[in-house]
Amino acid sequence: MATRVELLLFATGNAPEPDQVVELDHRHRSGDIWHAEVEGIGIGCCYAYRVFGPLQPGRHGFNPSKLLLDPCARAVTGWDVYRRVDAIGAIPNTASCLKGVVTERDRFDFSAAPRPRHSWQRTVIYELHVGGFSRGAGSPVSEGARGTYLGLIETIPYLKELGITTVELLPVMAFDPHDAPAGRLNYWGYSPLSWMAPHHAYQQGNNPLEIRQQVRQLVTACHQAGLEVLVDVVYNHTCEGNQAGPTLSWRGIDDRNYYHQNAKGDYLDVSGCGNSIAANRPHARRLILESMRCWALELGVDGFRFDLGIALSRGEGLAPLDQPPLFEEIEADPELSDLKLVSEPWDCGGLYRLADFPARRIGAWNGRFRDDVRRFWKGDERSCWPMGQRIAGSPDLFGGIPALLGRSITFLTAHDGFTLADLVSYSRKHNLANGEDNRDGDNHNNNWNHGAEGPSSDPAVQALRNRQLRNLLSTLLLSPGVPMLLMGDEVRRSQGGNNNAWCQNNLLGWMHWQPDEGDLALKLFVRRLIHLRHHLADLLNPEIPHAEAGKALRFDQPGHLLRQWDGVKLGQPDWANWSHTLAWSLNDRDRGPLLWCGMNAYHEDLSFEIPTSPSGWCRVIDTHQLPGDDLPAHPPDAVGSSIPIGSRSLVLLAAKPLMEGHHL
Question: What is the pTM of this model?
Answer without folding.
Answer: 0.97
